[in-house]
Amino acid sequence: MRTIRETGFTFQRQALQMLRNPVWVFVGFSTPLLYLLLFTPLLKGVPGVGHTTSQVLDAFLPGIMSLLAFSSGASSGFGTIFELQSGVTERFRVTPASRLAILLGPFLFGMVSMFTFDLVLVLVGAAFGFTIHIVGLLVLAVLLGLLAVMMAAFSTATALATKDISAFAAVINGINLPVLLLAGVLLPIALGPGWLRFIGHFDPLYYLVVASRHLASGQLGAPATWQAFAVLVPLTALTLWWSTSVFRQAVS
Questions:
Q1: Which pLDDT tens digit goes with each residue over 28-80?
Q2: How far apart are CA 29 and CA 154, in angstroms?
Q3: What share of the chain is helix, strand, coil (3-state, %, to 5)?
């Protein structure tokens, strides 16, 4: 009970920080919409995507939702380094608050923000022909939450390990492009050669992207769904354990 209450406090703290900087809110809403606006016309006629706006959105929009989960989690480390350098992390040393609660509050706020952006994205997409399957999207939301928490934990642990904004940015930017490319977020990985498709199976985001397209189309029983859970659940647990261990050392 105490951990839940303390998680709520850290969640509220993170929300207040975000509301004080509305630029992040504007960027968060505008970026996924720009992806739809700019990429949807380009993907018409691409094999495996579709020829109409509705077909393109059905294939492309779930990938953008996966991209949001990945990017929202991966960016959390920047705030961690800011708090480390500004002395906030040092102040946590003298608090009796649960270290897990201090981590989970920002993670959960990131998830709420992501789901808000996803909702806007789905509604805008539906206005232009995206087909909504409620149950499939609800199952997809669980997978998106797992990836967001996994990436937030990885990002936070990496930030605490590097303790430098330049080094952390180099790591995140270095993995960003290959992870997105191998996952087939913007272009179907099926268009690539065999060796590229093989490497893609070592990318956790790949499993989410494939499952997201099946779930968004209402195919709840597709093997890609349980494969995504089988990959993301243990990886999320592992990164959470690692992040909590690193954070406890940082504030001990």
A1: 778 888 888 888 888 887 777 777 888 889 888 999 999 999 988 888 888 88
A2: 24
A3: 80, 0, 20
CA dihedral (66, 140, 194, 234) positive or negative: positive
pLDDT at 209: 94
DSSP code for 201: T
Residue carrying structure tokens 């919409």: 33
Whether the predicted pLDDT of 89 surpasses 70: no
Range(s) of the domain holding residue 151:
2-251
When divided into structural domains, the chain yields a total of 1
What is the rounded CA–CA span in Å between residue 12 and residue 207? 32
Average model confidence (pLDDT) for the chain?
A: 85
Are the beta carbons of 36 and 29 closer than 8 angstroms? no
